[in-house]
Structure formats: structure tokens, C-alpha cells
């Protein structure tokens, strides 16, 4: 496809980084992925939600059927308050199926990353490098050079930072802007934390069937419970006394203190399962701050670009963060392919200094296409978490009485559907539309070529 001397270095081998590897592989673009963990299959972390816009493009990559085997569809969201009183049900997931032909699905990080990793072409496996913690990134005449803490170094044309909310790539990008006295300078701490989250995974028991979803809403704290085939994930969102831009690391004692404060609250009706019950039977758990925000500048000098949580961070209550990271990959790789196709006839292609303008154009087009939907998605996620934690009587009233009305849910879902329908698909892959509902996608995939008999 493109010039053979164009090489992408992906920093971060989580779900977004591995999705990037799939996209680059199918685009015929040379790449390596550097992951600081010892394995690309992640054993820790809360579950994720796959929604139609990301399921659609994962289907283009040939991954959807395998992902369906290790995930559970989600239906009605049941809600109650801290005393166990019913708050009505939410039909968001049912409307997703109506509009786009698929229910959202809950999947563990382990199963997601296992499918993403093991389904990569065999000949790309040497390009996936674990135990590679990046210590430096510098720009060169023809691209970038990356050094790792183990002393190894790697050369490439561009770097994609898919290394999460506390991205080293983003930090290095900021330092390069400072060193070059550039006005394209990101804030040192771009994300604000208003909530922290205790997540816990425990065996699917207590009569919970796969796909069951319960939420508990109330002042200062809300919970979500998603039941999978083998395990259930509980997420507790606690509003901080004061928002902060500072990073915080929590201990097991901090987890236990939070459970001590809120352990009596129900996760299911009739006190059949409480926060304390779930935590006592947990297989894994963790307490983390939930950063929110959108980074101002997503790229640097045609050499470095950010994707996923490195560029934007959502509260996870709507499940939008990971899914928007997948759409970042779609938009970014589409733009790179477009520029590589245009540069195909050039002797040096995009890897040389003379081709940097085209890469910069690709990065700018990518950011321009993603910025508005990401800002809107981040705002919606934050609003959903605020509604559930009742910071004032107005939001409490709306959550308790207005959002329980299915006519209101239908109206808001219709609005969201028009935004979802604009999500891009890979425009360089021949594929059929796998998800079809009552709302047509604005950007249909490239149709498979039909061979004549």
C-alpha cells in the first residue's frame, strides 16, 4: 500500500493499542507495539462495555464473532436508591439494539485483550514487545527514536501514544513543546478528578443471570453492577469532597475504608447482595481516581499523536471511554492510509522530512474529526455520574422522577442515535455492514468487491 519505509511505533498495548495493531496490520502499515507490562493479556481491571459504534468496526477487523463468545449482551438497567426503593428502569441498551441492530455487551479486560492479542496475524507477533517501558522519545530528521528503560531503542516514522490517562508520550510531547518554545503546549495536569471508583470482580452467584444490570443512586455515591457469564463486576463511584488535578494512589486499606463507609448499601433489591457482600467475595478489586477531560493538543510536529485515554478521559459510567478510543483508531488510521496512498509514488514517502507536512495534515484531520464528539461524550459521561450521585436537589429530582420516564429516555436516545450514526468506519477495508437497525450509518463501510463469474 504505502512506502515501505513508513513505520509506526505504538506505545501502550492495552485494548486501544492492540486495536491499533489490528488496523495498521490490515492497512499494510509497518508497526511495533511497546508494552511496559510482561503480558499483553490484562488480568486486572474492571470490565468494559462494547457499544454498537465500536462493535461495528471490530466486526470490520474480523473480531466481532470471537468477542461475542466471551461477552454478554446487556438489556434493561434496573435502578434503586440507597434504601432499596425502586427508581424505575432504563432502556438505553434496548434502544441501541433497535437503532443499530446490537445490544451493548459486557466483557472482561482479560477476555477482550486475549481476543485482540491472539487474533493478530502470526507474522506480526514479533512486532509486539512486552516489558518495554519507554524512558525517552526524541525526534529525528526522518522520524522518531524511542529508548526504553532496559536500554533498547527503536526507530520509526511516528509514535502513537495509546498509553492511558497518565501517558508518558503526552508528557514527552509537552516537554518537546517547552523545549521548542511552542504555543502548542498542553497543561501538565489536563484531567480533573471529581470521583473515585472502587471496582470489584466476584463470581456470578446470588441468582444473578448474565446480562443483569443494577444501579444504586444516592447522595455522594452510586453503584453499577454488570453480570457476566462467570463473574460480576461492581463499580462504586464516590464523589470527592474536593475535585483535584493531582494523581492519587490508593492502598488496600483505602479500599476497606470505603467499604466500611458504604458496605451496607444494596446492589440488588431486598438487601440480597450488598457492597460488603460483593467485596468479601471479590476475586480482584482496585480503587482508582476517575479523571475527566480532553487534552487541548493531540499531536506534535507530525511525529507524535495521542489516542484513547492519553487524549481524553471519561468517567466510566456510560462505558464511552474505551469505545471512543476505538473510534480514535479508526479516524487516525483512515487519515494515515489516505496520506500514504497519496505519497505512494514519492521515493522517500512520508518517512522523510519532506513528507512531514502530509503527516501533520493527517494528524490535524484526525483531531478535527474527533474533538467535538469526544468533548460531547466526556460531558455526557460526567453528567451521568453527577445525576447518579445527587449533588443537589435539582439533579436528584431529575434522576428520580424525570429519567425514569421512558418517553424521556426514548427522546434522548433518538438524539444520541443521530450522533452515534456519524461514527466512522474503516474506509480502506472491503466489508459488509454487520450491524443494521432502524438508524442508518452515515459513513457505510467500503462494500466487498464482487468477482464476476
Automatic annotation (TrEMBL):
Domain of life: Eukaryota
Keyword Hydrolase included in the entry's annotation: no
Any one GO molecular-function label of the UniProt entry: FAD binding
Keyword Aminoacyl-tRNA synthetase: no
Key words of the record: FAD, Flavoprotein, Monooxygenase, Oxidoreductase
Cofactors: FAD
A Pfam family recorded for this sequence: FAD_binding_3
Residue ranges occupied by any FAD-binding domain in the UniProt entry: 7-173, 286-348
InterPro entries linked to this entry: FAD-bd, FAD/NAD-bd_sf, FAD_mOase_fung
Family, as annotated: Belongs to the paxM FAD-dependent monooxygenase family.
Designated name of the protein: FAD-binding domain-containing protein
Amino acid at each position: 500500500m504505502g512506502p515501505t519505509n513508513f513505520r509506526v511505533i505504538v506505545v501502550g498495548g492495552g485494548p486501544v493499542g492492540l486495536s491499533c495493531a489490528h488496523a495498521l496490520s490490515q492497512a499494510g502499515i509497518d508497526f511495533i507495539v511497546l508494552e511496559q507490562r510482561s503480558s499483553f493479556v490484562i488480568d486486572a481491571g474492571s470490565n468494559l462495555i462494547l457499544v454498537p459504534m465500536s462493535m461495528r468496526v471490530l466486526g470490520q477487523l474480523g473480531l466481532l464473532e470471537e468477542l461475542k463468545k466471551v461477552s454478554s449482551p446487556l438489556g434493561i438497567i434496573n435502578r434503586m436508591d440507597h434504601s432499596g426503593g425502586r427508581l424505575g428502569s432504563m432502556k438505553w441498551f434496548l434502544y441501541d439494539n433497535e437503532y443499530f441492530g446490537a445490544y451493548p455487551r459486557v466483557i472482561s479486560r482479560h477476555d477482550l485483550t486475549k481476543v485482540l492479542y491472539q487474533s493478530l496475524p502470526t507474522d506480526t507477533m514479533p512486532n509486539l514487545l512486552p516489558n518495554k517501558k519507554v524512558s525517552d522519545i526524541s525526534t529525528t530528521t526522518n522520524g522518531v527514536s524511542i529508548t526504553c528503560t532496559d536500554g533498547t531503542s527503536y526507530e520509526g516514522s511516528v509514535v502513537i501514544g495509546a498509553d492511558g490517562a497518565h501517558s508518558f508520550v503526552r508528557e514527552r510531547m509537552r516537554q518537546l513543546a517547552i523545549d521548542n518554545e511552542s504555543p502548542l503546549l498542553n497543561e501538565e495536569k489536563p484531567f480533573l478528578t471529581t470521583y473515585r471508583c472502587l471496582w470489584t470482580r466476584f463470581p456470578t452467584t446470588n441468582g444473578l443471570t448474565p446480562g443483569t444490570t443494577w444501579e444504586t443512586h444516592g447522595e455522594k455515591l452510586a453503584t453499577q453492577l454488570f453480570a457476566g457469564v462467570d463473574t460480576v463486576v461492581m463499580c462504586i463511584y464516590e464523589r470527592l469532597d474536593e475535585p483535584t488535578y493531582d494523581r492519587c494512589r490508593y492502598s488496600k486499606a483505602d479500599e476497606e475504608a470505603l467499604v466500611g463507609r458504604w458496605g451496607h448499601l444494596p446492589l440488588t433489591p431486598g438487601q440480597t447482595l450488598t457492597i460488603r457482600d460483593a467485596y468479601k467475595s471479590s476475586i480482584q478489586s482496585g480503587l482508582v481516581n476517575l479523571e475527566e477531560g480532553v487534552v487541548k493538543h493531540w499531536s506534535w510536529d507530525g511525529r507524535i499523536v495521542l489516542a484513547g485515554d492519553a487524549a481524553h478521559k471519561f468517567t466510566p459510567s456510560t462505558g464511552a471511554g474505551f469505545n471512543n478510543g476505538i473510534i480514535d483508531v479508526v479516524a487516525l488510521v483512515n487519515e494515515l492510509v489516505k496520506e500514504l496512498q497519496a505519497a505512494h509514488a514519492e521515493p522517500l514517502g512520508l518517512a522523510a522530512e519532506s513528507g512531514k507536512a502530509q503527516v501533520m495534515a493527517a494528524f490535524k484531520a484526525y483531531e478535527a474529526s474527533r474533538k467535538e464528539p469526544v468533548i460531547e461524550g466526556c460531558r455526557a459521561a460526567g453528567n451521568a455520574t453527577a445525576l447518579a450521585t445527587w449533588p443537589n436537589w435539582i439533579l436528584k429530582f431529575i434522576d428520580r422522577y424525570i429519567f425514569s420516564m421512558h418517553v424521556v429516555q426514548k427522546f434522548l436516545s433518538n438524539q444520541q442515535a443521530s450522533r452515534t450514526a456519524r461514527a466512522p468506519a474503516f474506509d480502506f477495508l472491503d466489508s459488509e455492514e454487520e450491524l443494521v437497525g432502524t438508524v442508518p450509518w452515515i459513513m457505510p463501510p467500503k462494500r466487498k468487491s464482487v468477482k464476476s463469474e
